[in-house]
Amino acid sequence: MCAALAAGAVWISVAVTTAVDAEGILPVLEQPVAAAAALAASIGAATTRSLPAGVRAGLLTAILAAPILFAVDLAGMLHLGTYALTDRYDVSAYPHSGYPDVASYLLSDRIGGDIATLVILPVTMLVLALLGAAAANGCAGAPPGTPQVRPLDQIPNGSGGRLLWNGQRWLA
User: How many Cα atoms within 13 Å fall on the side-chain side of residue 55?
Assistant: First the structure.
């Protein structure tokens, strides 16, 4: 939960300190901040040597961070003073869109993009959380008290000797 709130704080600070345009709040920072939040949450939780805990922490971060980004992005868009078509795609698509004015077209386009982000962002964050949790769980090592596993070529046999593997068969 803290990772999602930290990501939200970053997005809000970017929205407050930068100029708003029709593309939303600095689209370059949306995915990296979300990825960092998911990785931080999953790695932090997986250091407890529990892969499911790491994945759950990343999933919770993804579920909470996506709506925060949606709200921050739309709030920034609503504070846009003038609605103007700024790129060639919008200029050519607007006359055929059927919207009565440019503001309606831009808001609809932005909401559509944000809804797609609500679907795509949690999925990518969950994949990163799974990878981060697996990496942290693997780096944490075995828990204390876990029995050591001997290599197969040093298994003692019943007569007190050891069985050795020569690459083709076991030797006593």
Answer: 8
Q: Taking the CA atoms of 123, 128, 131 and 133 in sequence, report the sign of the dihedral they define.
A: negative
Q: Which amino acid is at 12?
A: I
Residues 6+ apart with CB under 8 A from 6: 37, 40
The Cα 8–Cα 105 span in angstroms is: 27
List Cα–Cα distances, 42 to 29, 76, 89, in angstroms. Answer: 20, 29, 39
For 77-98, what is the mean pLDDT? 81
Residue 76: Cβ-neighbour burial (10 angstroms; 0-12, 13-18, 19+): buried
**What is the domain partition of the chain in residue ranges?**
2-145
Q: Does this model's pTM top 0.70?
A: no
| 3 state DSSP class of 165 | strand
SS3 164: strand
Percent of the chain with pLDDT over 70: 72
Q: Flag whether pLDDT at 163 surpasses 70.
A: no
